[in-house]
Design brief:
This protein has 330 residues and is of the alpha/beta class. It has helices spanning 3-14, 25-33, 42-53, 84-89, 100-123, 169-178, 199-209, 227-240, 251-256, 260-264, 268-277, 294-301, 305-320; strands at residues 60-62, 69-71, 127-130, 150-155, 183-191, 216-220, 243-246, 281-284. The chain contains 13 helices and 8 strands.
Length: 330
């Protein structure tokens, strides 16, 4: 029996399931050697640990930050996307069978995360616009590759607290004369659980859905703790430029949050308490482009009325000289 085959059988009971309790390589070698058939060097065992930790099918994963290994769990039969269309069209709801309560729970987590993302960026001076109709049940499957869940708008506003929503009049006039947009648009896709099995699909959907904007983001609710997963996302970012960030919210943490409407309408102290729960981890920064592809955006406008709503909202802010938040029900 090969060393890898033996390790596949031996390692699962030896590895902790919680990455925060990761076992050091030296200790793992000692424990594994007690059950191995054959004399293998420490270097050979470490090599196999490293190679196997990059394989989504293997039971061992290496922590992203720090040292040590933990047990990689099988993909959870939960929705990794952020909208109803992804769940329904990809058939992932089938994994729940007739368990309607599990379906409702999964969709509620998606809505909560969307609300958390909205509040997080509002608190940090950005203006989110959420797409919903493009992902409703019955919408074309191709919308997964065309529309972001959230568009993040960055305006040039005043520095003083009483001017934080006022647009910079001088810069606004200059950009209008130069034919430049007085804002920056970044398109974000939302996912609940990062996985070595699905991160490429997640990434390239984010890339495709942001090709008209000035940059793309892939936002995960759960922490990215697998080193192989983080490295894979960084390599894709280096080539294609989509930023990647996690909010540190496990499924249990999402379940403990209030309802989406309460998150969106929370008082300042409640919002601060919510922000304190987040463990933001920037895996890779987005590569921002200079210009918006207006022709591509106009093409999307013909496919979804929500693009017209986005444009009307941006136009209204310019006309009023104020960067007003976009509000809708959760």
């Amino acid at each position: 029996m090969s060393l890898r085959t033996q390790l596949t059988d031996i390692l699962p009971p030896l590895l902790p399931s919680n990455p925060s309790e990761a076992i050091k390589g030296t200790e793992l070698i000692r424990l594994a050697r007690l059950q191995l058939n054959g004399a293998y060097s420490d270097a050979s065992l470490r090599y196999h640990f490293s190679i196997m930790s990059c394989d989504p099918a293997s039971p061992i994963a290496k922590v992203e930050k720090g040292q040590g290994y933990y047990r990689r769990t099988a993909p959870v039969p939960a929705l990794t996307g952020a909208q109803e269309l992804l769940a329904l069209s990809h058939g992932r709801l089938d994994e729940f069978g007739s368990d309607h309560e599990a379906v409702d729970l999964a969709l509620e987590r998606l809505r909560k995360f969307r609300a958390v993302v909205t509040r997080y960026y509002e608190v940090n001076g950005r203006f989110p616009f959420t797409f919903r109709q493009a992902f409703s049940q019955g919408a074309p499957l191709g919308n997964l590759w065309k529309f972001p869940e959230v568009v993040l708008v960055d305006w040039e506003t005043g520095d003083a607290p009483d001017e934080e929503l006022a647009l910079d009049a001088g810069m606004l006039a200059l950009k209008q004369r130069l034919g430049l947009a007085p804002f920056r648009l970044h398109a974000a896709r939302l996912r609940i659980q990062p996985s070595l099995d699905s991160f490429r699909e997640d990434f390239f959907q984010a890339l495709s859905a942001s090709n008209w904007s000035q940059g793309g983001e892939l936002l995960y609710a759960a922490p990215i703790e697998d080193e192989a997963l983080a490295d894979g996302l960084r390599r894709l970012n280096a080539t294609f430029g989509v930023g990647v960030m996690s909010f540190g919210l496990t499924a249990q943490a999402l379940d403990d949050l209030p309802r989406p409407a309460n998150i969106l309408n929370a008082h300042p102290k409640e919002t601060q308490a919510l922000m304190d729960r987040l463990d933001i981890n920037r895996i890779a920064a987005p590569h921002s482009r200079q210009h918006i592809d207006w022709q591509a955006l106009d093409g999307l406008r013909r496919e979804s009325p929500e693009v017209s709503h986005l444009i009307n909202w941006l136009t209204s802010c310019i006309d009023k000289g104020r960067a007003e938040p976009h509000r809708e029900e959760a």
